[in-house]
Amino acid sequence: MNQPPTSPAGAVLVLEDGRSFRGRSYGAEGTALGEAVFATGMTGYQETITDPSYARQLVVQTAPHIGNTGVNADDAESRRIWVAGYIVRDAARRPSNWRSELSLDAQLRDQGVVGIEGVDTRAVTRHLRERGAMKAGIFSGAAAALPAAQLLELVQAQQSMAGARLAEEVSAAAVYTVEPADHGWDGEPRFTVAALDLGIKTMTPRHFAQRGVRTVVFPADTSFEELTEAGPDGVFMSNGPGDPATADVQVELLRRVLERRIPFFGICFGNQILGRALGFGTYKLRYGHRGINQPVLDRRTGRVEITSQNHGFAVDAPLEGPVEAPHGAFGRVEVSHISLNDSVVEGLACLDLPAFSVQYHPEAAAGPHDSAYLFDRFIDLMAAAQGAQQISPDSTAPSTPQEEN
Description:
This protein is of the alpha/beta class. It has helices spanning 45-49, 104-110, 121-131, 148-157, 167-170, 203-210, 224-228, 248-259, 269-277, 373-391, and strands at residues 10-15, 20-27, 31-39, 57-61, 65-66, 85-87, 90-91, 114-117, 134-140, 176-178, 191-196, 213-218, 234-237, 264-267, 281-298, 303-316, 323-324, 332-339, 345-350, 355-358. Strands 10, 11, 12, 13, 14, 15, 16, 17, 18, 19 and 20 form an 11-stranded mixed β-sheet that branches. Strands 1-2-8-6-4-3-9 form a 7-stranded mixed beta barrel. A two-stranded parallel sheet has the order 5-7. Helix 8 (248-259) crosses helix 9 (269-277). It is globular and about 70 Å long. The chain starts with 9 loop residues before the first strand and ends in a 14-residue tail after the last helix. Mean pLDDT is 92; it is low at 393-405.
């Protein structure tokens, strides 16, 4: 049942500016519309397609061979495939790996994800790098035979990623808890974290659990009152898709968290929300950062980390600091991490509040583990806050600025 078609139908990738690429149908046949972006990881294609941050995007894999190791249940980063469409050069004819449970082609078809193979992904990537991420469509089967002008009209008529509110579409429908005991932790939980699911990946609560932290995961539209009913020692905001300019609800939630001085850690979309909560703006990158080989400088330590990233928007904050947060009485903030490719803001650190964030994915599945220390930094922040409360029972927060680890 899961064998690929013996003779794949024709397919075409059409970009917003009229450029098109012919290939063969891969996965399901039909039409897929979304924003065309490229991901530079040489491994981890299953983690890529199941990352909710890729919702409503057509992903071009720059690695030429895709599907070689098949797919399995353990490596999925969420409950389903989230890419709107998939673009590869050389798709494996059959998977070869002892962990493989299904071919990638079969899983794409089973979940109705339209793809295209046999295209020059190097040419597509170079085009997007020069022109920027843009609206696109994959058309296969009968749709591929439609007139080129009609296909281009369909592509151009779709909604832009700028202004798209997507976190609520990919978030969990109900609250759930990830316990440390289920991931090798022997003993009582050290802390409880309330995690706002904006597109959270499976590995994130696992990292917390392995360090003895219970994670209570909440839907994206959760209120401050609902979030704090869990009695969290800290609040976490995850990665996720869409334009951070649309996340007013989450920004206001975070401002209340900061006002209460509850320790906060955000990644990717969570970094952009912290930036907005502090009063900074955000903007759309030309083609974004996507892949598992993005170099970042930790300005506090001088250490260069190779990071996993997936974002098309960034925080507009002064690189030289510290500066006073533009919004409210949140004190000083500095840019803690920067991209070594283009100097984009890759992290923020509050100096008078227990809060920090990074623009990349420290859970890195798949990817390097250079940034796993950030989970420990957050634990240290929660421990410091808890210690301060024990010393001053009437206080609701630590009396000293965030500790630098």
